[in-house]
Specification:
The protein has nine helices and twelve strands. It has 288 residues and is an alpha/beta fold. It has an eight-stranded parallel β-sheet with strand order 1-10-7-6-5-4-3-2. It has a two-stranded antiparallel sheet with strand order 8-9. A two-stranded antiparallel ribbon has the order 11-12.
């Protein structure tokens, strides 16, 4: 069975319950959510999120797992501004607690940007932060996301993620989230050699470390290092290659999450609407 969903929102009176309802409206069987706005640290108390109601609705509809995405403001790789690093450590700890409280086992994290100090320094800071946070009892795994390599991003190469694993004391609490757009933009041949990508990943980290897939097309050619998502089949990767990833037998039990752009509404082009219901249906119907 294809485990497929999308990013969903969490706001208003229904909060997390509304997130589950949104996922179900797309006929999804998994989903990804932020615990609050990704651009700031303002968060509602867990008691306000309607978690029991959301879990009951998930159980009723056979949704067994979902993913939380850490906010963009977390940058463990920053060695230039101590307050930025300290905020990242403090807030990531809180996001772990919130993710566990909501019932997720996976928290996706952008590894960070070295802001001009170099990859080696950035990786050292990332592992310094992770070693402050992760213990044998940490209830959630941190899934490091593969990045496109724009600016000073760390994580565009599998070797960089492997080095983070190597230097993290409790690396058993780490996982990886592979993003098709990011890998393509970073130079990996998602179109013609996804099996080769998985082989390379397996040698460095092990296929079992993949905890999530972000399934996105790309507006840029391979190796552009730009990170601009496109709707499935409307970008440079193409639907056939993305469907191959979605249905790959090595990833059967891994949640696939759509982060594709909203599209103009047919009857009102000035209004943009989520494409997820249609994209999920197409993936299910056009299996390679």
């Amino acid at each position: 069975m294809l485990l497929i969903g999308s990013h969903v929102g969490m706001s208003g009176k229904e909060m997390f319950l509304g997130s589950v309802k949104e996922a179900l409206s797309y006929h999804a069987n998994t989903f990804m959510v932020y615990t609050g706005a990704p651009q700031n640290t303002r968060r509602k108390e867990l008691s306000e999120l309607k978690i029991p109601e959301a879990k009951a609705l998930m159980k009723e509809n056979g949704i067994e797992q979902f993913i939380v995405h850490a906010p963009y403001i977390i940058n463990l790789a920053n060695s230039v501004n101590p307050s930025t690093f300290e905020l990242a450590v403090e807030f990531l700890e809180k996001e772990i607690t919130r993710s566990a409280g909501m019932g997720s086992r996976i928290l996706v994290l952008h590894p960070g940007s070295h802001v001009g100090e170099g990859t080696e320094t950035g990786i050292r800071k990332i592992t310094e932060g992770l070693n402050q946070i992760l213990t044998a009892d940490t209830p959630v795994s941190i899934a490091l996301e593969t990045m496109a390599g724009k600016g000073s991003e760390i994580g565009s190469r599998f070797e960089e993620l492997a080095e983070i694993y190597e230097k993290t004391v409790h690396s058993e609490k780490l996982r990886v989230c592979i993003d098709t757009c990011h890998m393509h933009d970073a130079g990996y041949d998602v179109i013609h050699d996804f099996d080769g990508i998985l082989t390379a990943f397996d040698k460095l980290l092990g296929i079992s470390q993949i905890a999530a897939v972000h399934l996105n097309d790309s507006k840029n050619p391979q190796g552009a290092r730009k990170d601009r998502h496109a709707n499935l089949g409307d970008g440079c990767i193409g639907f056939e290659a993305l469907s191959y990833v979605a249905h790959h037998p090595a990833l059967t039990d891994i949640p696939k999450i759509l982060e594709t752009p909203y599209i103009p509404q047919a009857e009102n082009p000035d209004k943009k609407v989520p494409p997820y219901k249609e994209e999920i249906a197409r993936l299910r119907q056009e299996k390679p």
